[in-house]
Structures are given as structure tokens and as C-alpha cells.
Write a structure and sequence with these properties.
Helix 2 packs across helix 3. The termini are far apart. The chain is globular. The protein is an alpha/beta fold and about 250 residues long. About 40% of the residues are buried. The mean pLDDT is about 90. It is built from 9 helices and 6 strands. A 6-stranded parallel sheet has the order 2-1-3-4-5-6, sandwiched between helices.
Amino acid sequence: MPEDTARWLSYRRELPRAKLRLFCFPFGGGGASIFISWINRMPEGVEVCPVQPPGRENRFEEPPVTHLEQMVARLTEALAPLLDRPFALFGHSVGALTIFELARHFRRQGLPSPEWLFASGHPSPDLPRRRPAVSHLARPELTEALREHFDVDPALLASENLMDLIFPALRADYELVETYTYREEPPFACPISVFGGSRDPETTQNELLAWRRHTTGPFRAQVLEGNHMFIQTSRDALLGEVVRDLARIPVLGA
């Protein structure tokens, strides 16, 4: 059955004359609503397309995806109709890994390539994973691992109601990352910008800089104040950096 594009883009506010689409992918266990506030902060002509993976928010009743190959295949089917104009990809945490493989899959399928890749809160995909595997753990042990090793908000972990809602998607996203296998392919030609948090245990500065090998085009790395959730706590600074780069894309009049 063909993928329903609208379900994957729950909060999209269509711009009939959009010059560029910015597809935004959330962090582990998170939903597309994190990007609603971005819609009115973009340069003129940029249509923000928050991507909603299964198993969260308005797709809560759907089983979450646990393997990146399946996620990328389904996303390609859903998003292909919207690649009729220039686009860029932003992803935070597991979202960064997703956009990397999605752009490579587009290339293998002969589909258009992004104008820019924005990777946030994730080491370069070719690096060995140094974080402990947790997706196989029972909920009590997984919750404790998130508290000890992943700097997850203690208030979230302490809320049984919130954890009931996000736990299946959160576990699935950890499994998606833990089962990922990097395969060598040529670098992109498009620019890549990467962002990290100054106190993020998920990435080091060297792990961010290692993204450099994945493009023959312009590259820059920016560290912002905050832990892994700097996408929220340093939202204005992050948005400023993204807008700065988008303004350099020729189709937007740079």
C-alpha cells in the first residue's frame, strides 16, 4: 500500500509558492510538534515540513519503525511527491542519522539531492558507536540506563504517564540506531552543517567534525549551549544558524 504523505507531515503548512522545502526529523521518541515553532521563523519562501514517524503523537496507534532501512524506504515513498522543488533536510539525534541515509537512498534511486544537510546532536555515521546498547533491556533497566548514561530529563523519566506514551517509540529509536550498519559511499556534493550541545554526552566535538568527510562541498560545525536537548533549550540560537545557511541557497535569492 502506498505511503500516505499527509500522515508523515502532520503539521505541514503548505506554501503554494514555496521556493524550498525544509524536512525536519525529530529526536528519539520525539514527535513532529517540536518543529511547529519553526514555521514562522523561516526566510520567505521556505516551507517547513515536520516529519512524523509512526508510533507518536497523532500516529500513536501505529507500530514504531525499528530498523533504518525500513524507515528510509517508507520515507522515500512518502516524500518523493514533494521533491519537485529544492529541499533541505534537518535531523536531530536519530533524525540526523535518518536524513543522512535518506539522502543517500535518494541518490541511489536517482531522486533529487538536498540543497543542504543539517545534522544535529549525532556523531558522524561512520564512527563506531561508543554509547551502550539499551534497546534490549526491560523497561525498568532501560529507564535506569537513560538516567545514568543518556542525560534524559529526570522529570520525564519520573512521569509514568509520559513514559507510557513515549516508551515504545523511544525503545524503537534506540533499536534503530543500535542495529545501524554504516556502508561506504561517495560523499555528498551539498553543504553540511552540524550542531552539537556543549554538554551533550551523545557527541564530542571531534565526532561532530568527523562529518566533514561526508561532503565535498562547504562544511561547518557549531557547538551551542546545552545538553542533548539543546534543540529546545537553545532553539533560538539553533534556528538562527539554520536560517543563516538557508539564506545562502541560490534559489532563496542569495
